[in-house]
Design a protein that fits this description.
Layout (H helix, E strand, L loop, with lengths): L1 H19 L21 H16 L13 H25 L6 H24 L4 E3 L13 E3 L6
Antiparallel strand pairs: 1-2
Helix pairs in contact: 2-4, 3-4
């Protein structure tokens, strides 16, 4: 994860540059030129590849889970929520104003998914269980905690 995180930090700087330098009204296309004029779709594909690599090692997700586990996983869950907020803030710039490249917003969308999978992966590597979300049952006064190991059962 350290190598991916360094790349992600650089891409977030690229997006910040892109947002700070909105497209000129007369410009037709966004150009990923490294100067803030657009965002390269290859970065989205890189994220998707990393997500797929981590997902292959994890058991299938069959329920909602609580954002718990190792400290690094908790930090990744916080990063995921911040990323979702940034994505929501970018929607008007892409949809209404059309001053930002939709690829930058797509990157943020996939980045939040990356953070979620990375948090699960960290918990898996550290042997931390996942705690399943339990809907409050009207007939009970206490919710039951359900945990599930992320380790493969042979």
């Amino acid at each position: 994860l350290p190598t991916q995180m360094l790349d992600i930090m650089s891409r977030l700087f690229d997006i910040g540059s892109h947002v700070a330098k909105p497209r000129d009204p007369g410009t037709v296309d966004f150009t990923a030129n490294g100067l803030g004029d657009g965002f390269d779709v290859q970065h989205i594909e890189d994220l998707e590849g990393w997500i797929n690599e981590m997902t292959e090692a994890l058991p299938e997700l069959t329920c909602f889970i609580l954002p718990t586990g190792a400290p690094a996983a908790a930090h990744l869950h916080v990063a995921r929520t911040v990323c979702r907020r940034a994505e929501r803030r970018m929607v008007p710039l892409v949809v209404e104003d059309q001053t930002c490249d939709p690829n930058a917003m797509k990157y943020l969308n996939r980045l939040s998914d990356f953070f979620f999978v990375a948090a699960r992966y960290v918990n898996y590597c550290e042997g931390q269980p996942e705690i399943q979300y339990q809907r409050d049952a009207p007939q009970t006064t206490q919710r039951q905690r359900v945990t599930r190991s992320l380790q493969h059962e042979d």
